[in-house]
Task: structure prediction
Amino acid sequence: QVQLVESGGDLVHSGGSLRLSCVASGTNGRVAPMGWYRQSSGKEEREKVISITAYGTVVEGEVMKGRVSISRDSGTNTIFLQMNNLNQQDSGIYFCQMYQGGTVYWGQGTRVTVSS
Result:
């Protein structure tokens, strides 16, 4: 069973940076498309932040375009989200997602709070 565990969420000042991590387990060594989504306070939907394919192609969402990057460490089955120049609208819960074998898996999320 695939499990995703995010970490790195924190309180950060506006203009600051933060790096999130997501460790995947139960993948049987396969490299799968993964990505980051966020759910802002008061919103039900999760917005795509950025994703990376199994081959390393990166696709940015619109919500944080130009301020984020994603990387993968295949050896540890971990992906990272680097976020820069954060503002208060970036506050929310950030979720890791994986697509494997026709199933979408989600982590439990990690909270990011950006203060003024």
